[in-house]
Write a structure and sequence with these properties.
Helices cover 33% and strands 15% of the residues. By secondary structure, the chain is α/β, with parallel strands linked by helices. A six-stranded parallel sheet has the order 2-1-3-4-5-6. The chain has a five-stranded parallel sheet with strand order 10-9-11-12-13, with helices on one face. Bound molecules: 2-acetamido-2-deoxy-beta-D-glucopyranose (2 copies).
Length: 392
Amino acid sequence: MGVVAHWRATGRSTITAHRANRRSGSSQRERCCALVRKRTCSSVCAATVGFLLFLGVCLLHLPDPLTLEPVVSEENRAVTLLIWTYPFGRYRKIPDCFALYQIGGCTLTDDWRAYPEADAVIIHHREVATGSADLPPEPRPRAQKWIWLNYESPSHTSSLWRFEDVFNLTMTYRTDSDIFLPYGYLVPNEHRTRGLQNRFAHPLHTPPRSHRPRPRLLAWVISNWSESHARVAFYHQLRRYIQVDVFGRAGRPLPEDSGGGSVVRLLGRYQFYLALENSQHTDYITEKLWNAVRAGAVPVVLGPSRQNYERFLPPEAFIHVDDFPTARELARYLLMLRRNPARLRRHLDWRGSYSVHQPTFWAEHYCTACRAVRRTRGRTDVVRDLRRWFHS
Ligand SMILES: *[C@@H]1O[C@H](CO)[C@@H](O)[C@H](O)[C@H]1NC(C)=O
Ligand SMILES: *[C@@H]1O[C@H](CO)[C@@H](O)[C@H](O)[C@H]1NC(C)=O
């Protein structure tokens, strides 16, 4: 297990230090994997073991941002993080990072008067792109960092060209962001006793052998129906061969308090769920997938490539639209699984070893950003080629 330990040590120091790799497009996980490969595949007999390790180790470590935190040392001065706008103009209470995530040394504020002293300003893209807020005034205080915060996909992120050489750190769902926090991630059970994120992680369960099929087959929750989306075209195809229960503005009403929890309860009655992203981009895998995973409905995904999903989940944990030449074949496969519990189990057996963590918007983002500011203090960073990188 020397490999595991080694990567863990490397991982700690690289979570915010992968700017150099950004342009080459290599993610933290790919580097992790390259490293594991180098160390385990030197002899032929190690190849199989190496491959298993490669899967296990890389999957284990990529989506585990909170445990990468080294113990915060007391002598480090606390930092002030200024929240420039409320994302989408919606007020949220400012979190207590220590109480929630045991991230110490962070003063969060939304008071613009703190600007001259702030160590960092976190700036949500939408408001400065649409002009509902201006960027902070220049010249900025020396050593202050501006953090670009964005959780929309490139298709829904406008005016990027205006922000070249403006920001110092990026914070997005992309694995190669300076501050990486995805919409959700798996926590292997052996970490649960260690990490602080346990409190927020939902343990997943493999259904018992005696388990009967779920009463309902296939659901889809869709709030923004647009005929121009690939997912709507796909749905039109699929519904010819299989019953799809559609919920949301364009379908049946969602349960009353339609927060994440009630969607998860709804999906708990279904065997499969259509986790179709509004656009297809690197690492753009949203709560649609993670809600299904939490609910134990096997996600049928449309988004980035299968290979990209496999950075976040075991290969059998999801069914990719690209796995089938046509919507008809996909429908056939789902109906076949329904009749063959043993085959269906292949898509569920992995669950016993994991919990799922869905970071809280935006409390966890602010606290994670603040921790990164503490860690990168004294360093100069500039985000160049923002547009090219985000679209890559
Ligand atoms: C809904 O989809 C349309 C078409 O892609 C897009 O222009 C719009 O921004 C989306 N709305 C939301 C709220 O995501
Ligand atoms: C932040 O970015 C600006 C604009 O590119 C740059 O002038 C400044 O030196 C950077 N500051 C730090 C602390 O990285």
